[in-house]
Specification:
Number of helices: 1
Radius of gyration: 14 Å
Number of domains: 1
Strand content: 35-45%
CATH topology: SH3 type barrels
Order of helices and strands: EEHEEE
Number of strands: 5
CATH class: Mainly Beta
Structural class: alpha+beta
């Protein structure tokens, strides 16, 4: 199964790339949240530290399963 990893930065940019497999999607999301994101377009290499990342999402046909389903609420 293919997943798209989306990395949301504090300046409004969103980088995305594809990985294959639920385990890979989890590993990539965890590593980005912990160590930051490295962008390489073939000409420029950029590293964004973890404090610049607002959100990391794994989007696919089947969202990775979890035993810890959460709920959201607002005021």
């Amino acid at each position: 199964m293919k997943y798209t990893i989306k990395v949301y930065l504090d300046d409004g940019r969103v980088y995305e790339y594809d990985v294959v497999g639920q385990d890979k999607a989890r590993e990539h999301c965890a590593a980005i949240a912990e160590h930051g994101y490295r962008h390489n377009d073939g000409q420029t290499f950029e590293h964004y530290p973890a404090w610049r990342i607002l959100k990391v999402k794994a989007v696919g046909e089947f969202v990775p399963s979890t035993s810890y389903v959460d709920r959201a609420s607002g005021t």
